[in-house]
Write a structure and sequence with these properties.
Length: about 500
């Protein structure tokens, strides 16, 4: 049996629509009544009867996939409901668990994701320990002792039950430690030796960068190359936030996709002089993406962005006449199938999909509007367009998440994003040179300092503008969906006017 592409696309879109609808219903605490469901079913059947046979078949596939999406999200949400045996809200409890992930926060605070958690009962009670089935997020003060992956810790903290929809789906609650003496490490080691070795390598790399470069260049380089935001001062981080370029210090999924695109372009420039085959460039691009993912410690957003970038490169490598948009749709659907909550509640996944889609859709438009015969100028044009497209596509999501709009963020990202890619490349080469070629450390350090200095200069000057950031509150999901809907309709109309089908092969040159 041959499965046609339109049916696969219809199934993916229907499944994602079902997940989106269920996510909206959870956010709004709305459960459709039986009569609403029955009326919607009757209208769908009557509407399908009026459609042509092929369109009717596609509609049936989409509706069935939509129902499966709703069912998948409902099952995940039901299994993720907090247990009634959890401690009382705002109760002071003692927890013991293993460190699953360490995330730096502002002003030196640290968030721990504890797994295999249990609440230790007080000595004057005969109650048995409460076992948590999902992770618990523990907030530590800046002066708390440093911990690493899979350390076993014990904390005394104030417990908060899951309140938001995202917390309800992913955690069993949050706990805040106010006194550093209420936190101690019981045992070290455990977990995957490979991951522990990679994290140890990452910490050693951060120390090498800080020993080689002056501040604030060392902090910026460590943040961009290794995702280590704790190395950046609070004032400089605030400047990045005001200028709308804070994403440069966070290894996000959409950052990974843009870096993959940039690496492909740069390698194409360099290796074209030596007559290297295009397949070799794609191989090196995939290897560079994997290496960078390892460097940043396999964080979830970086892994998702790497999977998207590798999938798009792999289709090109296999010589298939494929469409990157279709590949992105398949990869995104597979990720949502495994973790249904990421579509509506994971900002990193949303940024990855929005930025990647914008890059893939806008570049053909720019290629038609601004024609260029010179290859170097054409690639520079594409890099500029990709920077602007990714920044504009992620602006509504960032506004909804942080309640402010960086008025110059998109313009600032156009020159800064390519420079940040240079920081990553030179930074990785510098780390290798500190071990294999010490004579190259000085010139590489000078080059890296020049690049980071240019970024810091631009960020500080942009942040000093009074209207660089404007508070807008927190737009709701319907408003954000409307913005993306209007943008998508505009792009689709442009494609239709120029006779380019969105999901057909050979979309890009």
């Amino acid at each position: 049996m041959v499965i046609r592409t339109p049916f696969v696309v219809a199934a993916c879109l229907g499944f994602l629509a079902g997940i989106s609808g269920a996510s909206f219903a959870l956010i709004a605490s709305w459960v459709p009544s039986w009569w609403f469901t029955a009326a919607a079913t009757v209208l769908a059947v009557l509407g399908a009867r009026a459609l042509p046979p092929r369109v009717r078949a596609l509609a049936i596939v989409a509706v069935v996939a939509c129902g499966l999406g709703v069912l998948r999200f409902t099952v995940a949400a039901s299994s993720g409901l907090p247990s009634a045996s959890l401690p009382a809200d705002r109760a002071t409890i003692e927890l013991q668990g293993r460190v699953g992930e360490v995330t730096p926060r502002r002003e030196g605070a640290v968030a721990l994701q504890l797994i295999s958690v249990q609440a230790i009962p007080s000595r004057d009670t005969d109650a048995s320990p409460i076992v948590f089935h999902r992770p618990v997020v523990v907030m530590l003060p800046p002066s708390a002792a440093r911990v690493t992956y899979r350390d076993t810790v014990r904390v005394r903290c104030r417990f908060l039950r899951p309140s938001s929809a995202m917390d309800t789906l992913t955690t069993d609650g949050r706990c805040t430690v106010w006194n550093p003496r209420d936190f101690r490490t019981i045992a070290t080691g455990g977990g995957s030796p490979t991951i522990r070795a990679l994290l140890a390598f990452r910490d050693a790399a951060v120390r090498r960068i800080r020993d080689t470069l002056p501040e604030p260049d060392a902090g910026v380089a460590a943040g961009m190359v290794l995702g280590e935001r704790r190395a950046v001062s609070d004032d400089l981080e605030a400047a990045f936030r005001r200028s709308g370029t804070i994403h440069l210090l966070v290894v996000s999924g959409w950052h990974m996709t843009f870096i993959a695109y940039l690496i492909r372009k740069v390698l194409g420039w360099v290796l074209a002089w030596f007559g290297v085959a295009r397949r070799t460039v794609i191989h090196l691009t995939i290897a560079a993406v994997i290496a960078f993912t390892i460097m940043v410690g396999f964080s979830a957003p970086a892994v998702r962005g790497a999977l998207v970038a590798i999938a798009i490169q792999a289709v090109d490598l296999l010589g298939r006449v494929g469409n990157p948009i279709r590949t992105l749709l398949l990869v995104a659907t597979a990720m949502v199938l495994v973790h249904p909550h990421i579509l509506g509640f994971d900002l990193g996944f949303q940024l990855t999909v929005a930025a990647t889609t914008a890059i893939l859709l806008i570049l053909p438009v720019i290629d038609r509007v601004l024609t260029c015969r010179n290859r170097l100028l054409r690639d520079l044009r594409d890099l500029t367009a990709a920077s602007a497209a990714a920044s504009l596509a992620t602006a509504p999501l960032l506004a909804a998440a942080f309640g402010m709009v960086a008025m110059l963020g998109s313009l600032a990202s156009i020159p800064i994003l390519p420079i940040s890619a240079g920081v990553m490349v030179v930074g990785i080469v510098l780390l290798v040179a500190t071990v294999l070629a010490p004579l190259l450390v000085a010139p590489l350090a000078w080059a890296l300092t020049s690049l980071t200095g240019a970024i810091v200069w631009a960020v500080e000057h942009i942040a000093a503008i009074p209207w660089a950031t404007i508070p807008v509150g927190r737009p709701d999901a319907w408003f954000i969906s409307g913005i993306y809907g209007m943008a998508l309709i505009t792009i689709v109309r442009w494609y239709q006017r120029h006779g380019i089908p969105l999901l057909a092969p050979s979309l890009h040159r």
